[in-house]
Amino acid sequence: MSVSRHRSVLVTWLSGRPLGSSQSVILAELRACILDGEAPPGTPIPVDAVAAVFGVSRIPVREALMTLIGEGLVDHRPNFGYRVAMLTAAEFAEIYLAREALETAALRVAVGRAGEADVERARTAHAALEEAVRVGDGRAHHRESRRFHLALIEPCRMSRLLNMLGTAWNMTEPLQPMSHLAAAERALLHADHADMLAAFTARDADRLIGVCTAHHRRLQAFITRLPQHTGLFAASSRPETGPDKENV
Length: 248
Fold this sequence. Notes:
By secondary structure, the protein is mainly alpha-helical. The chain folds into 2 domains: 3-86 and 236-247, Arc Repressor Mutant, subunit A (Orthogonal Bundle), CATH 1.10.10.10; 89-224, Up-down Bundle (Four Helix Bundle (Hemerythrin (Met), subunit A)). Helices cover 62% and strands 4% of the residues. The protein is built from 10 helices and 3 strands; from the N terminus they run H-H-E-H-H-E-E-H-H-H-H-H-H. The protein has a 3-stranded antiparallel beta sheet with strand order 1-3-2. It is globular, with a radius of gyration of 19 Å. The relative contact order is 0.15.
């Protein structure tokens, strides 16, 4: 999948939505497009075209992009412009290791603090995930998988830890890894989810951590087998081919 194929996909997505023009709206809409996987890694972000969609000058768009650069969702190359950030395969795997450590810490606390409302929220999230698996919807599986994991960890009520986990998680979202897995691989991961829910419901922290650790190992093994020649991963060192003034 070449990067050039995505030249206008972000602008097309924005053009089909009811938008405002405030700084917060511009930031929220750009972030949503990237996190939803609508603009894959490497997608150019043409400042003038985005500004035209919102009916603003380039300044608030640039300010929003600077915020997204700080979040690791966008990068900027002098003379080449802005694009949805790309990770190398090694960087992608590294972030998943960080996510595992943060999630494990959150789960150990969450399982002891969870109330009945939290358990019911986890069951509801699991049911939605199960439906996505049943119909074979990879994008929905990706979305509902995150929702399920969050339902298990948010009862920890540790805002700083959750913010760090959210930041790490967001950095992997543009690639939408769940949507690239085979149905059999998603089924195996979903079986782990059922075990995680059972341990969470039983308030069995040791069992929950054990299942979560095995789940992450399985997921990381699947990720190492994702095709790395599609243009979604950055090369370790990729020479630039020439400026694209549209995105400057």
